């Protein structure tokens, strides 16, 4: 069914990708993780990605160095302020300034190259189409198009016969609550994840879109989010 049960898993260090890694392992894949240092202001997430990779005994964990700051265009790769304290309606109105131009296309292209180099045809990514963020490169239509392109543009895709390259998106239609519940059922340690766009050693901000969505997800199932958050006094 799969090629030696190997999979490349894009691991950001966030909640969604940690759950996706656990799902891939549950399905019997040996995981080769890939993370990116791309000039993101929330580089703290990479410490969590490293911890997740070690805790889950990934076969290999590759860290790719990029510099998307040279292009800017996003609050995550420039000095533009990250929006905070937004309502659900505000989060749902248009693509936010935290969108990084073509980020998932860049990441998936690297994952595709890595997968082909290790004779692997399965790539997992934690994109989610239900988050209020509304990023265009998290939609099913985009993933389907990239998968089609991958099978046209690679040797393994052309010569693979029935063993096509597959882009797996197991949480794409899940709510944050459902992702958390799924992760907990698989033993994911969410204390070593980071979702915050302003994360640091002092904790998550608790105010950016990513934090608010995450906090609501834990609240809905009555479970305390195990990560550290800055106090309101510190944020004032």
Tell me what the structure shows.
- This protein has a single domain (6-235), classed as HUPs (Rossmann fold).
- Helix content is 37%, strand content 11%.
- It is built from nine helices and five strands, in the order E-H-E-H-E-H-H-E-H-H-E-H-H-H.
- A five-stranded parallel β-sheet has the order 3-2-1-4-5, with helices on both faces.
- Strand 1, helix 1 and strand 2 form a beta-alpha-beta unit.
- The protein is globular.
- The model is unreliable at 232-236 (pLDDT under 50).
Q: In short, what is this structure?
A:
By secondary structure, this protein is α/β, with parallel strands linked by helices. Helices cover 37% and strands 11% of the residues.
Question: Topology, pairings included?
Answer:
Blueprint (H helix, E strand, L loop, with lengths): L5 E5 L4 H12 L3 E8 L7 H11 L4 E6 L22 H5 L10 H15 L4 E3 L15 H14 L1 H5 L6 E3 L7 H10 L23 H12 L11 H4 L1
Parallel strand pairs: 1-2, 1-4, 2-3, 4-5
Termini separation (Å)?
54 Å
Helix percent band: 25-40%
Q: What is the CATH first-level class name?
A: Alpha Beta
CATH homologous superfamily descriptor: HUPs
Summed up, the domain count is: 1
Low-confidence residue ranges: 232-236
Q: What is the mean predicted local confidence, pLDDT?
A: 93
Radius of gyration: 17 Å
Helix count, DSSP H or I runs of 4 or more residues: 9
Order of helices and strands: EHEHEHHEHHEHHH
Largest sheet: 5 strands, parallel
> Which class best fits the helix and strand makeup?
alpha/beta
